[in-house]
Structure formats: C-alpha cells, structure tokens
Specification:
The chain is an alpha+beta fold. The protein has 18 helices and 29 strands. The strands form six sheets. Strands 1, 10, 11, 12, 13, 15, 16, 17, 19, 20, 24 and 25 form a twelve-stranded antiparallel β-sheet that branches. Strands 8, 9, 14, 18, 21, 22 and 23 form a seven-stranded antiparallel β-sheet that branches. A four-stranded antiparallel β-sheet has the order 2-3-4-5. The longest helix is centred in the C-terminal third of the chain and has 47 residues.
Length: 774
C-alpha cells in the first residue's frame, strides 16, 4: 500500500507543478479582461452622458495633459495656452506645457504676442457631421464611418461584411456588424472623465503657444462645411483669424482606406512655426472566444538607415510583438502608477503616457517612421502618410515622426484603453501659405490577401502587408519563422481553391506536411529504437559494474566506457531524436498560422453541413476560429482555477478536445516503447507521459479554436498510422547491438602501446625503414 501511494504521489506532483507553472506564466501574459460586450456597454453609457466628454495626452513638451470636458460655456475647461488641463490630483502631468521654442525668433516673436485660441461654436448652431460609407452591401462600401465634432475625429468605424459573432453573421443582424474603431471614452466619475477620437486633431503649437483642437461637446471648435469636411479657426484675443485648419475625409467604395486631406493655412501677416499633434489608432477590441492569448499589439513600419539601405526605399516592419498590456505597464511605471491590481489605484480614472517612437535601443538601424498601427487577432488600423504608388516620393510619415501611447484606465473593473498620438516636427508656414498635413489610414482585416499589392500598389510599397505576423509569442516566438508560416498560409489557400472548404484544406495540409517529413520521422524512430534496444541489453551488465565499483567513480566510468566499446554502443544514438526537434518549427508555424489566419474567422467546417441540416439552429463547427460548440450552456459559464485566465470561461461542451484525448490515448499506446524489461522508474515515467498527453493536453485545448482541433486530430490520427507502419518496418530490421570480437579493441590499443603508454604510430614506420636500410 505505501508503494502504491508513493507511485500515485510521483504521478500527481509533476502534474500539479506543471499546472502551477502555466498559471504563473499566464499571470504575466494576460491582464484582467472583461466580457466582449463590456466595451459596447461603456460606449452606450458614454453616449448617454453627451455633455461629459474629454481628451487626454501627455504633459511633456510633445504631449498634452488629460482633458476634462465636463466644463460648460460658463466654466471653461482649460486655462489659455494649456488646453484640456484636467482638474484634481489625478492629472499626473503639468498644467501648462512649455511647447517648443522657436529656433531663431524674429521681430514678431520677440514682441508681446497676443493669446491664441481655437474659435468655439454653439453646438445648437453646428450641424452634426454626415456619415460616410454604408452598411448596405449593395452600396459597394466596405465601411461605415461616423465622424465626431470632438477633434474632427472618428466616432465609430464599422465593417459592412464582417460581424461580431457567428450568430450575427448567420442571422444578418443589422446591429451585429463588427466595429473596428470607436471613440475611446469612459463615463464621468467623481474625479475625471476621458475621451479620445481616433484620427482626431489634438492640438497645435503655434510659435510656442499650445492650442487645444479637441474641443468640447457643448462648445466644439470644429464645424462641418461639407460631407466629411471640417473647419477650425485659430484666432487671437481680439477675435482676428490667425490660421485656418481644414480636414476632409474621403472613402471609396470597395476600399478599407480612409484618406484625410488636412491643411494648415496661415492667415497672419508673418510666418508661423507649427508643431502638429493628433491621435492615431485606438486599441481594437479583442475577440474573447475561448482561448485568451494576448493578441492586441502596437506595430511600426519604418525605413532603414542610409547604411543599411542607401536607396531608402525598403520598409521594414518591427517584429518586437509589443503587447498592449506591456505598453500599459511601461506607461504606468513611468508615471509612478501601479497598473495592477486595480484595487491599488487611486480613486477615479488615471492617465499615463509612454514614448514608443523613436527609440534607438529598441529599433537599431531604423530610419524614418512610415506607418504605425494597432492590431488585434484579425483586424488592424494602420496610419501612414499620403503616398502615390510609383511616385518615387519619400515614404516617411512626415508629420508623425514621434509616437506616444496614451493609457486611459477605467475607474472600475472595465477594460483599459490605449490610444496612440503622433507629433510632427516643427513646420515653418510662410505668411499667406499653407502646410499639407494629409495622411491616410487602413482600417480593415489583418489579412495578407486584403493588404496585397494586387489590391492596392501602395500597400506593397509601404510594406503594410508585413503588419500581418503569425506568431503567438512566448518562448516559441524565436523559432516561429515568418517565411515558413507565410509559405504554409499560401499553400493552404491553394488547397482551399481545390476543396472550397477550410476544414478539409487544413486536413490536407497536415497530410502534405507529414508526408514531406516522413523520411525524417522514419529515420529518427529507427535510430531511437536501435539505441533503446542497445541500452536495454547493457542494463544488466551496467548494474553489475555499478555494484562492483560503487566506491570508485573513476574506475566505474572507465569500465562503463570499456563495456560500451566492447558492445558497440555509442551515446550518439541519443541524437536520433534530434530530427524530431528540428521539425518543431514547422508545427509551431502551422499552429500560429492557423490561430491568426483571418480566412478561418466565421468560416463553417465541412461546407456548413450541420448548419444546413439544422437550419442554422446548431452552432457545431459553425466557426473554425472559435470552440466547436457541440452543446452550449445557454449563457451560463464557469472558469477552471489556475488555468482559467488562459482558457477563458467554459460555456459549453466541446466534443473535439474530448475526441483528441481518446486519440491521444491510442497515439500514446502505439508510440510507447514495449513495457518489457523496463525498470519501475521507466514504467512510472511512461505512465506520467500517458496521463499528461491523454488528460492535460485536451484540457488546455478545450477552448481552442476548432480549426486547431481539426489540425491536431488529423495530425494525431496520421501519427498513429505512420507509427504502425514504421514499427512494422523496424520489426523487419536487425537492430540488435553488434558485439565486437573479444579483445579486438584491446589488441588495436596494444599494437600502438609500449609499457602501457601510447606510442606515435609514425615511430613504428620509421623503425621499419631503419631496419630495411641495415
């Protein structure tokens, strides 16, 4: 009985340690996340408080302080020259940034300058901005863009052909279209209120005076002049116009590219030195279906320095996999704010800012910035300069050479927000002339097909296709080769063109990959089987030597080496498993490719046969990017302790991972070496391996996308067939260890030895020659 308890304990302890290690890792990889509907609830709550909106950025010279828009006409929200200075102790930034000093002051700049501000308008006299695009597929538009008076930015960008859930897609729910970008806002609290519109104008620095361009809900600084067009007037304290800023949005049917024509016109009688601040992309909502691997990232595309690329034409995408959660942690660390746990925060919302670009230590050999993007698992918003394909003009984002991340934290247990802000270099605008500040943004699927140069040559020349990266990160990130993952996705597309079904294409892809690797697998298994038999044959003799020389380690080592030479056994046989490890990058790349492949999102398996038979009432295998949903609990869910942060809530019975456990049982049965002549320790290790593969792996895969489960099921079934075939071949081979002739090794050694010391073999030849001469 004690022996049985001891065996059970040896089996359970490693399992508990492994689960604990995984849970410990998840704690660093995943931050607290809410239900997918939380952001929509936040937005609805924010819209209900239309009179309480705000903006926030940094308080450094190239960043702006938080914005509290609860002020009304009678109570201005900001001090002149310091737009949007938030009240209360939670601003965390200086109230009046110094701006950028002129390089060479002229006569105007040395005089007492008048105060500058953005002209405000009565909200009741300003019409609401018109919507661009449409959600009607017949219109040809792929986006619907709702504009905002706050910063003349984006209120919401919704896709026409993509939906939030598979249920919305199957039922064509008009309210279920996927929202890629929306105003980042939190409803008012006792202390603070935050808001930022993607692509919105934040501020402009004119000759060292910082002017707020975001505005307020009741007193906007922007007014529509045409569909998609806005105007803002900069005036002095006497009400005279100093500058005019115009913004015009344009969206073409069939395109995900939103163009913003932006112009700063100098209306004064002297030149102006201008620094432009504006928001770029807000973070995209994460699709929390099953697996909760962190996929929200900040990406950069940049030119190379002159040493690496003298032509300055090649655009490189960074591969740092900068996670949104990492940005939050760095921003909080710089501001001295504790990001987690949220219970330790000071009351109310807080704002933190961290510089992201340029950063020479992190981007060695990088030149000018070309584009900056925020990505999720399947979608991306990439902001870049205006560029005409084939023009030969510079690809650099001229007025976005610095990028900061603004972190807006929820006052309670809601999802934090991250908004990027770009800053231009100092621009000199002569009197009566204009400065072009135009830019564009791709807001659409994170898909190589949609970002192909065939769709738009600009995407190819700006390297936007490189924003797509098939890498789950973690310890396997370094060996997830992107050229290999892209080769696999291209081959998967080729198979889909033949089968017209993604599930069948995945199965065929696994068949092709295993067939290609079969010679390596076969050679590896033969080498490992031969070495295993050799070591089993040596085990009794090794045990005797260990008993005989237990008190003399050096002699034991020498005798062991002699025994292995005599028996013809070499430790090189252990390297028979090396080819299997060399295959790992292929399977890791295949896993990452399937996890991030946009093509599998909301795609039915096996031609949607289950949905066709049940009239779309059974969601089993209706979406290859989410769990298979064999039986759903109807809204009820629960979390598994320790690993729930990685797996996500269990909301139903998924049959594919359970089948995977059964397949793994037979897989383990056929792959395990024969149990004969095994020591108790070896038998125990084999039992632990069986439990690990049969129980733990299916548990970790329980909430995995069904496309990945199809991949593992196919791979395991083929592994069983392949192992049986290789084993049958091995049984026909003579793998028994070949003994050398008795004393053969010693005779060869004695021939070149005198008095027990090795002799030079050339010495013997010299003696023969001397004897012949004599």
């Amino acid at each position: 009985m004690p022996a049985e308890k001891n065996t059970l304990l040896r089996v359970l302890v490693p399992i508990v340690l492994i689960i604990g290690a995984i849970a410990f890792s998840v704690a660093f990889l995943n931050s607290a996340r809410n239900r997918p509907s939380q952001r929509q609830a936040d937005r609805a709550e924010s819209s209900a408080s239309a009179g309480s909106n705000g903006a926030a950025t940094s308080g450094e010279a190239e960043n702006l302080p938080p914005r509290d828009e609860t002020a009304t006409e009678a109570e201005p929200a900001a001090t002149e020259g310091a737009p949007g200075a938030s009240g209360g102790e939670h601003a965390g930034v200086e109230a009046e940034p110094s701006g950028v000093a002129p390089e060479s002051p002229d006569e105007y700049q040395t005089k007492a300058r008048p105060a500058l501000r953005a002209r405000t308008w009565d909200r009741s006299a300003v019409p609401s901005p018109e919507t661009l695009g449409s959600l009607d597929p017949a219109s040809g538009y792929r986006l619907r863009v709702e504009l905002s008076l706050l910063g003349a930015g984006l209120e919401e960008v919704t896709t026409t052909e993509f939906f939030a859930t598979i249920n919305d897609k199957l039922r064509r729910n008009p309210e279920g279209h996927y929202v890629i970008q929306e105003r980042a806002a939190f409803p008012p609290t006792a202390n603070n209120n935050l808001s930022a519109t993607p692509l919105g104008a934040r501020a402009v620095d004119i000759d060292g005076t910082l002017i707020d361009l975001y505005g307020e809900t009741l007193r906007p600084v922007w007014r529509p002049t045409a569909p998609g067009a806005f105007e803002c007037i900069i005036e002095d304290d006497a009400g005279a116009a100093v500058a005019r800023i115009e913004r015009r949005y344009s969206l073409q049917p069939g395109s995900f590219e939103l163009v913003v024509e932006q112009r700063f016109e100098n209306l004064s009688g002297h030149e102006l030195k201008v620094v432009w601040y504006q928001y770029a992309a807000a973070d995209l909502s994460e699709e929390l279906k099953g697996y909760r691997l962190p996929t929200q990232r900040v990406r950069f595309g940049h030119l190379l320095d002159a040493r690496r690329d003298p032509t300055r034409t090649f655009v490189e995408a960074d591969d740092r996999l900068l996670l949104r959660d990492k940005v939050i942690e760095e921003a909080c660390a710089e501001q001295g704010i504790q990001a987690r746990p949220k219970d330790h925060r000071r009351p109310g919302s807080w704002v933190a800012v961290t510089p992201l670009w340029p950063d020479a230590p992190k981007f060695k050999g990088a030149g000018e910035l070309v584009w900056v993007a925020q990505t999720s698992r399947y979608f991306v918003t990439a902001v870049h300069g205006r560029y005409q394909a084939g023009s030969g003009a510079s690809k650099a984002f001229q007025h976005g050479n610095a990028v900061h991340a603004l972190v807006m934290a929820a006052p309670d247990d809601r999802l934090d927000r991250v908004v990027l802000q770009t800053t231009s270099p100092k621009i000199t605008v002569p009197a009566g002339q204009s400065a072009d500040l135009s830019f564009a943004a791709y807001i659409g699927p994170l898909s190589r097909a949609h970002l192909s140069p065939k769709v738009d040559p600009v995407y190819g020349e700006l390297g936007l296709r490189n924003a797509v990266i098939y890498n789950v990160g973690g310890m396997c990130a370094w060996c997830t080769f992107q050229w290999l993952a892209r080769l696999l996705i291209d081959f998967l597309h080729l198979l889909h063109a033949i089968t017209h079904d993604w599930a069948l294409s995945i199965m065929l892809l696994v068949v092709c990959v295993r067939s290609l690797l079969h010679p390596i697998t076969k050679r590896s298994q033969i080498a490992m089987t031969r070495f295993g038999k050799q070591m089993q044959a040596l085990a009794p003799k090794q045990k005797k030597l260990q008993e005989k020389y237990r008190d003399n380690p050096k002699q034991l080592q020498a005798e062991m080496a002699r025994l292995m030479r005599e028996e013809g056994v070499s430790y090189k046989g252990m390297f028979g498993c090396l080819p299997i490890f060399l295959q790992s990058p292929i399977w890791i790349a295949l896993y990452a490719m399937l996890y991030f492949a946009f093509d599998l999102r909301h795609e039915e398996a096996f031609f949607g046969l289950v949905q066709a038979v049940t009239g779309d009432r059974w969601m089993f295998l209706a979406d290859l990017s989410s769990p298979d949903h064999f039986i759903e609990f109807g809204g009820w869910s629960f979390n598994i302790p320790l690993i729930g942060a990685l797996m996500g809530p269990i909301s139903g019975i998924n049959i594919l991972p359970l089948l995977l456990g059964i397949i793994f049982y037979f897989h383990q049965k056929y792959l395990s070496p024969p149990t004969t002549n095994l020591s108790p320790e070896q038998q125990q290790a084999q039992q632990i391996s069986k439990i690990m593969s049969v129980v733990l792996f299916p548990v970790f895969m329980y909430n995995a996308p069904s496309g990945l489960c199809v991949y593992f099921l196919t791979n395991s079934c083929l592994g069983i067939v392949e192992s049986k075939w290789i084993r049958a071949h091995i049984n026909q081979l003579d793998l028994e260890p070949k003994k050398k002739e008795p004393g053969e090794a010693d005779r060869k050694k004695v021939e070149n030895t005198a008095e027990g010391r090795p002799r030079n073999p050339f010495l013997k030849e010299r003696e023969k020659k001397r004897f012949k001469k004599r």
